[in-house]
């Protein structure tokens, strides 16, 4: 779908969200619960945590055991993720992410609509049981994209202020290597939390987990800047771009003009 037109991308995204939301609405009318026995779910979570605290064989076995449930969730997450990609594609083609001044009125409108609707939906989602029931999922599916759009609009407008430009410049390398950093975060968290490394799963609370996440990202911001000083793309981005375009793409910046910026799209 990389050649799809922006209007077609947006229409397809809306259709995907609509189909998933309709399915959740039908499921909600049955009164079914995704977690019918909370105590059993908590016990299963404890068993999973203990398995992840084991060695490499135990970690792999636990992932294989939970794979059917993860594949089942793709029926919901897959179409919704694709719809988000299509909205991003349309925004990129329409220069909405680059020409912020031109689209400032639209971005402000997204903020005024997205924050109230998205935050209200988040309250309903949380108080209604979250992902434990189909009604909570339905509300989240319909309102979370609005909240995400409001966050994005706020960031875009801020990044075009004086202080925002400095922050954007510092974060840009990590953004250009988002896939490599995503995979890197997985590897680092395996080392930190599972029995393969420090075995901290189940031993740290939410505040400590947040500090770990911020620490990992700070390291990746610095590492991304150093990497892109020598290379045109992150390693995963380079592999993906080579596969997508079906021809060799130069990775190293050696021999290139220091004044020319490599294409990053």
3D architecture notes:
- The chain has 265 residues and is mostly helical.
- Helix content is 72%, strand content 0%.
- Helix 6 packs across helix 8.
Features:
0% strand, single chain, 265 residues, mainly alpha
Short description:
With 265 residues, the protein is mainly alpha-helical.
Question: Separation of termini?
Answer: 15 Å
Please compute the radius of gyration using only Cα atoms.
Answer: 21 Å
> Strand content of the residues, in percent?
under 5%
Number of H/I helices: 9
- The overall pLDDT average reads 88
Oligomer classification: single chain
- Helices and strands, in order, run as HHHHHHHHH
User: By helix and strand content, what is the structural category?
Assistant: mainly alpha
Principal-axis shape equals globular
Percent in helix? over 70%
Tell me the layout of helices and strands.
Layout: H1 6-29, H2 38-52, H3 56-93, H4 104-127, H5 134-158, H6 162-176, H7 178-193, H8 206-228, H9 235-245
Helix pairs in contact: 1-3, 1-5, 4-5, 6-8
């Amino acid at each position: 779908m990389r050649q799809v037109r922006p209007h077609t991308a947006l229409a397809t995204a809306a259709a995907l969200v609509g189909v998933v939301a309709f399915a959740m609405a039908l499921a909600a009318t049955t009164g079914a619960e995704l977690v019918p026995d909370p105590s059993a779910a908590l016990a299963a979570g404890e068993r999973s945590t203990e398995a992840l605290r084991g060695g490499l064989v135990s970690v792999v076995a636990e992932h294989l055991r939970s794979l059917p449930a993860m594949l089942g969730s793709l029926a919901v997450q897959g179409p919704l993720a694709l719809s988000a990609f299509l909205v991003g594609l349309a925004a990129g083609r329409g220069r909405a992410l680059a020409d912020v001044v031109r689209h400032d009125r639209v971005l402000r409108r997204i903020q005024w609509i997205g924050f109230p609707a998205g935050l209200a939906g988040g309250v309903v989602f949380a108080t209604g049981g979250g992902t434990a029931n189909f009604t909570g999922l339905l509300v989240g599916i319909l309102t979370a994209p609005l909240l995400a759009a409001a966050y994005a609009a706020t960031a875009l407008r801020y990044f075009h202020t004086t202080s925002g430009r400095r922050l954007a410049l510092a974060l840009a390398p990590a953004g250009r290597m988002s896939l490599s950093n995503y995979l890197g975060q997985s590897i680092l968290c395996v080392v930190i939390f599972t029995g393969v490394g420090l075995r901290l799963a189940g031993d740290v609370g939410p505040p400590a987990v947040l500090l770990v996440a911020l620490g990992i990202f700070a390291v990746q911001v610095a590492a991304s800047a150093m990497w892109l000083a020598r290379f045109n793309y992150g390693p995963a981005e380079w592999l993906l771009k080579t596969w997508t375009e079906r021809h060799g793409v130069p990775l190293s910046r050696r021999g290139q003009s220091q004044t020319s910026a490599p294409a990053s799209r």
